Amino acid sequence: MAIGELHRRVGANLRRLRKQRGVSQARFAEEELEGLHRVYYGGIERGEQNLSLSAIEDYASRLGIDPLELFRDPEGAE
Amino acid sequence: MAIGELHRRVGANLRRLRKQRGVSQARFAEEELEGLHRVYYGGIERGEQNLSLSAIEDYASRLGIDPLELFRDPEGAE
After folding, report:
1. What sign does the CA torsion over B42, B44, B48, B52 have?
2. Which of A26, A57, B1, B73 could bridge B78 with an S-S bond, Cβ 3.0-4.6 Å?
3. Does the distance separating the beta carbons of B53 and A1 come in below 8 Å?
4. Do you know which Pfam families this protein is assigned to (chains A, B) (predicted)?
């Protein structure tokens, strides 16, 4: 697995969940993720943020999902 | 999933890999993980360290495994 692949997976899965809910990055960051800054959140979706395990658990709990869902293959190949 | 479960999974999977190789925490930290402090590594195994995605990718690459292996159910139920 390429370096940065975990970050890309988390970002792509958050984007997938956001699109399923049909909301903008700004609204998803502000409302669903309860006050995350829009610009910071955009970096997460692009796989540019080196998130910690606690941050991932926190976002998953705010979204009501299992944190492991953020590590699955976003194209659903697995 | 309980808060801290990701940290516990990574720790338990590292412990499982270490035991498969039959080495102590000190040797695993120093040699396999190339210079990690033994005490810090002990905390990782206990699920007490809030690792970042880059750290997890780094340890996986030093161990020659897929980083996702560190998130699987350590008891192999999945």
Report:
1. positive
2. B73
3. no
4. HTH_3
